[in-house]
Amino acid sequence: MSNAVSTAEKSSMAAAGGPVGTRGYKGGGLAWLTLPALVVFVVFAIVPLVGVIILSFTSWDGIGAIGSAGLSNWLSVFSDPGLYNSLGLTFLIMIASWLVQTPISLLLGVFTAGSQRYRAALAVLYFLPLLLSSAAVAIAYKALLDPNFGLATGLGLPLLAQDWLGVPQLAVGLVIFVIAWQFVPFHTLIYQGGVRQIPKSLYEAAQIDGAGTVKQFFSITLPQLKYTIITSSTLMVVGSLTYFDLIFVLTGGGPGNSTRILALDMYLRGFRANLMGPASVIAVVLVVIGLVLALFLQRLGGKDKQSSQLEGL
Amino acid sequence: MSTTLTSAKETTPTPPATARQGLGFRMRRLNIVGGLGGWMWLAIIIIPVYYIVITSLKTQSGYFGQNPLAPPSSPTLENYQLVLDSDFARYFLNSVIVTAGSVIPTVLVSFMAAFAIVRGKGRFLKLVNGVFLMGLAIPLQATIIPIYLMIIRFNLYDSLLALMLPSIAFAIPLTVLILSNFIRDVPNELFESMRLDGCSEWQTLWRLALPLTRPAIVTVAIYNGLQVWNGFLLPLVLTQSPGLRVLPLGLWTFQGEFSVNIPAVLASVVLSTLPILVLYVLGRRQLLSGLTAGFSK
Amino acid sequence: MKQSQTSRRSFLALAALVPLAAVTTTACGTSGPGSSSGGGASMWYLTGEPNQTIEQKAVDAFNSANPNNKISTTFFQNDAYKTKIKTAIGAGQAPTIIYGWGGGTLKAYAEANQVDDLTSWFDQNPDVKNKFFPSVFGAATVNGKIYAIPNQYIAPIVLFYNKELFAKAGVQPPKTWDDIMSLVKTFNGMGVAPFALGGQSRWTSMMWLEYLLDRIGGAGVFKAIFEGKPNAWMDPAVIETGTKIQELVSADGFIKGFSSITADSNADQALLFTGKAAMMLHGSWTYGSMKKDGQNFVQNGKLGFVNFPTVAGGKGDPKNGVGNPAQYMSISSKASDAEKESAKKFFKDGILTDTVLTAYVNTGSVPIVNGIEDKLSTSADKDFLNFVYDMAKNAPNFQQSWDQALSPTAAEALLNNIDQLFLKSITPQQFAQNMNATLGK
User: Fold this and answer.
1) Residue C77 to residue B244, Cβ atoms within 8 A
2) Looking at this predicted complex, what is its ipTM?
3) Were both Cys, which of A155, B293, C328, C410 would link to C148 (CB 3.0–4.6 Å)?
């Protein structure tokens, strides 16, 4: 493509060029290229981020004027047992989701990475949930779970015919299951990619040494997938802070407060109870948790792989 | 695992009659376990999908009267007709506009920024890169309240533009990161030869970096496109008019309006998924790699 | 080559611009209802039959008579509407006509100057003001000024029952709380759920507390809460109310899975008319929807209705009622003068016209206009209509629904705590304490 440039142009450009560097030249002159992205990002991400901190010190009902509130929002939110319920629930769902999804996705990733044709065919179907939005998944499950006309009656399994959305413990379990249903395919895909990058020679060598499949899995596959596991886990953990859509449509935080995770708590306080100040306090808590988790997971992955872990966010 | 050969038949519980040797038998047994697990997971995925599809083809009375898993005795498309008559096309169009209007600018500005970050030098660019990296670690949904306030103040409340601007901002950090990883992979010699040919950095950007990173661009475009296409919180908070509903929000209101008409609700779920399903059928590999956008790179 | 480059760039630029241009036009085409120009006004209303059709017809009739003051309507689902309207008002994008239930929510709008003071308009149009029951203006009045026009019908909460099931069981409708508890045993023994309840909507569960608290502690307890008196929620009557509710829940008084049933889908009513549940405490408006959807359940005289039972030792007057005294419409202060004029014209000529009145009476509702008695007595539903009318007229105290009477913040806390009370995840004491913390908010 570059050969199209005329020689005249070339010579004039060369004359204007600066000293040859190892990588690029007149580096500072490129800064303006970042401006469009920077402006949008600052205005619609950084400013709101600062804004949410400021709003946490104000009182605003979303209808009238914004007034100063000092520390009162912080005091009221932190003395409210609702916060600790939501915090606990957020971490419960985070950890349970990780415990459920990681082994399943890892095994399915290994399984679908196999060369057999039927596995490839299965994989096509495995990834179907990826095509549905969270709202669609939640709505479908609501219909599916109807105790009278839902799946349980069809399968003839009375065990499944529970009041899934009406009993607090069941609702939490259900949320974890539906999250897994929706997101396992995505993580399977990540692991599948990871497994395919493991050099075949490692397995061949192990086979010559007489190592069985189980041993190969633990001595080759797992260690080789270290960074994939960290990436996938980071996505799961930080992503779990924002399972808002699914839970909002599926349970609305109910029954009672039993599925009211932090993101939902923020929305309901702000837009339903008209308490934007306290809702902003929750938002700040969310941001802090996100930052701490990201830094922690990044540590886990080692400094040299910094960027690859951050991709997971 | 990937070295043994299996066929679908082997998933039947009957063990192979002749076990040549210990190792081979163990591996085969493990494959059976894996196969069983694979089929079980398939059931977990496919039964709900099957239920959604067949129920959407049932009449109201069929829904109440038939076994929920039996195929419809008299399949009907009237539910789909009802959904299409309920402004579905409008929601679809809105989703397309918001998705295109978010993804194209995102990719353009991110590509330029990524190029500058990789090729340029100086404290400013380092700072910019740092700002974007920080953006990755923050759950940006947490900023919805100030965004709501700003959108009101900018007089953008209840417009599609109100959905696009924050969507672009949220997508920039990851897009810049992935694109800069790919631009970094472009051999320095190529940049050098461009420079010797007398191209400015601006020309290099479009003539060299862009074509070479095209696969990455398609990938991030798909990834961001799906994020925006499925987004729910921004439309929920920033729009109100029925004429401006995007698909996920439209689905949610259908659910309210058709609440007793479950077949119609599920028909709307199927319809909203069709466009992506078409994409999946046409370009499965590209779509799947788009989903994981460089995560396993 | 150079050319191909520019063309690619311009293509990209074009691709970026096309959707943006589309957005701008789309945004202008359907821009917020508050900013539409010229005559005419916008109004949001609730989905659900038969009322949706009646209101739409009322608007259509008004529009064809007043082509220059057309009202455009948008319909929302009840539970979604309550959040949506607050957000829209906060964003300055409210419809011209703001529909609601008066009370604390209207007070919040009035105090933020989001709705217009209509007092002087009513003074100029005495015939409009005198059209309605005088009592319905209470919930429309904030600090002595009227901020909304009453509309539609009075909607007390009524205890409905399935006569067929009662005959089968050989029992009488409940007169006391003890009757309720023994009926619960009877119906559970028959394999029928005693009470239908759409608990996911939460305000449905609230109706139980409203009546129970009134019967146990009298009208004064909630009055003190409403006025924000210190420790008003800590009244022993509140604790006893909570205890009784949890006893009823423990005795399987409500249908299994009530907390995942939503009232928006009318599933609770369906349980009653399909004989899956024997009784239901619900707003009088459900009479109309059961008549429409219940496959002659109402027409064949199978629907029974009584006043809420008394509680032994309770202080409340058994004739007291709770519910919505009326529905209300306010005018957004952000609307243009032309829009406001159209809205006022609609208030004057379009609301509760004779046709609309008749339509409401025919679906089993009691419109809030003076001199309605004749219409009620000649209706096919006269038993129910007179029951509602007498109840509203003779009630020494008619308590507005709590979630509407209280401020939006206190109402949300209330609904949330009621949900937990019914799930028994908090004790009646905790309920009282949690609510006590919201006093004055």
Assistant:
1) no
2) 0.83
3) C328
